[in-house]
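Researcher: I'd like a candidate sequence for this fold, 318 residues long. If you have to choose between options at a position, lean toward the conservative one.
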């Protein structure tokens, strides 16, 4: 009877035990999920399936605050998350206990074995990390030598960026100067007047003087200017006489501006007499001939001198 009773209860015990196992697993999964802080998975690493228990051996290729990336022999990269429960120590030792290290001692270049399970972010949550003492010493040596070199490279990169910026500013400065120098041969007409003369005369009339006074006033406040003077006649008289008369009229204008308004002679382009060759009106009428008996005076401003000077570049502290 007692054997039959145990036989009958055996299925019930199995079901009850299975229920306890499932309940414990659900509680453990719930606690693990609640304790993990969601974080972004690194798309450059290979994801670990959720809940999958995996073990890798490889070299640490990148180290962050509480994670690192391990590269295995197949050159696959995995992101590993370290927690306060992660066992981090060397192989062997007294009674195979090994020497314990803090998780902060995991260095780039260290060859390790890591064992754990995948989380929902595709990381391997490390349960155990193991490495040899000699590999740790090699990693420390590498860190000691390479760390300052990397820091120096970053510093040099910053200096190079600054030098590139200075060179670019200097290039723009040279371009602006070149543009100003190129513009020194270019002039714009700032003011233009045409003063008229009586028949066969090179004497300035009162009206002509007033016109020239206005132009001289504009020149007094200008920089980098020159004055162009061109004399003309109507079609009456001989060709040689008209060329001579047109030059005398141009000289009369230059003399008035230089003597009366103290305009330096270097400001004048060589006066030119064109005779009757550049008529602007009909020489067959008295009104047309009166318009042709003229001297055209132009105040020209240099484009390069008129442009603002390039701003001085601030001196950088060494």
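Model: Candidate sequence:
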């Amino acid at each position: 009877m007692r054997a039959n009773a145990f036989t009958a209860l055996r299925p019930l015990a199995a079901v009850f035990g299975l229920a306890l196992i499932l309940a414990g697993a659900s509680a453990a999964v719930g606690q693990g999920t609640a304790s993990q802080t969601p974080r972004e998975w690194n798309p450059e690493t290979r994801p670990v399936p959720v809940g999958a228990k995996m073990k890798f051996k490889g070299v640490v290729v990148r180290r962050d605050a509480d994670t690192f990336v391990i590269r295995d022999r197949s050159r696959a990269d995995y992101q590993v998350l370290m927690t306060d429960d992660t066992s981090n120590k060397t192989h062997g030792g007294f009674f195979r206990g090994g020497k314990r290290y803090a998780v902060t001692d995991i260095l780039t270049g260290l060859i390790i074995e890591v064992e754990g399970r995948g989380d929902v972010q595709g990381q391997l949550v490390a349960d155990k990390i193991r490495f040899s003492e000699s590999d740790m010493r090699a990693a420390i040596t590498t860190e000691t030598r390479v760390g300052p070199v990397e820091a120096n490279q970053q510093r040099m990169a910053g200096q190079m960026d600054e030098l590139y910026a200075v060179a670019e500013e200097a290039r723009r400065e040279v371009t602006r100067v070149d543009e100003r120098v190129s513009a020194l041969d270019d002039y714009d007409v700032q003011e233009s007047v045409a003063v008229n003369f009586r028949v066969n005369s090179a004497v300035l009339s009162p009206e002509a003087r007033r016109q020239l006074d206005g132009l001289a006033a504009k020149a007094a406040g200008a920089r980098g200017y020159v004055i162009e003077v061109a004399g003309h006649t109507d079609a009456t008289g001989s060709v040689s006489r008209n060329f001579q008369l047109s030059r005398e009229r141009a000289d009369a204008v230059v003399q008035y501006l230089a003597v009366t308004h103290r305009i330096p002679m270097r400001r004048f382009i060589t006066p030119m007499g064109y005779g009757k060759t550049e008529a602007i009106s009909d020489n067959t009428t008295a009104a047309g001939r009166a318009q042709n008996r003229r001297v055209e005076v132009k105040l020209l401003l240099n484009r390069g001198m008129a442009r603002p000077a390039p701003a001085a570049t601030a001196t950088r502290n060494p």
